[in-house]
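FAQ: What does the model actually see?

It sees only this:
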Amino acid sequence: MLLAAALLLAVPADVVSASRCWLPPVVGKVADPFRSPPCPFCAGNRGIEYRVRDATVVRSVASGSVTFAGLVAGTRYVVVDVGGGWRTTYGRLDSSSLSAGDRVVAGVRIGSASGLVFFGVRVGEHYVDPAPFLGRLVGEPRLVPTDATAPRPTRSTTVRCR
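And it is asked to produce this:
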């Protein structure tokens, strides 16, 4: 166990971060991409904002523990600690039944939103661009029989990031 911990510490941070690949939290079009602010209190966009339909379900991109769920200046946010110093933030939510301390698994409902949804990623105290960690499902297309015969088994799909 000590050897495994030592090996993890020896791995460069960019290799560890490159292994994260998640499905986006919503189906929607990017309305405002990540824009790193030039200073800690300067303007920018510390995540991705998606334009979504009314009552769109927002899902957790990874498993973890809710560290914050509530209102900030009248806007509902949920923050999930996904391990390794990484936290994901879901904002502009219309509703959420989660509370601090709740455990979530990847794909579980975080809440719902209408109009715009914010999704951010922090590593330690630094916001990073979530886009490189968001992928899409890929698999091999197949024809499905229309004559009531049993379809061939599906091959597994995977999430592929850029």
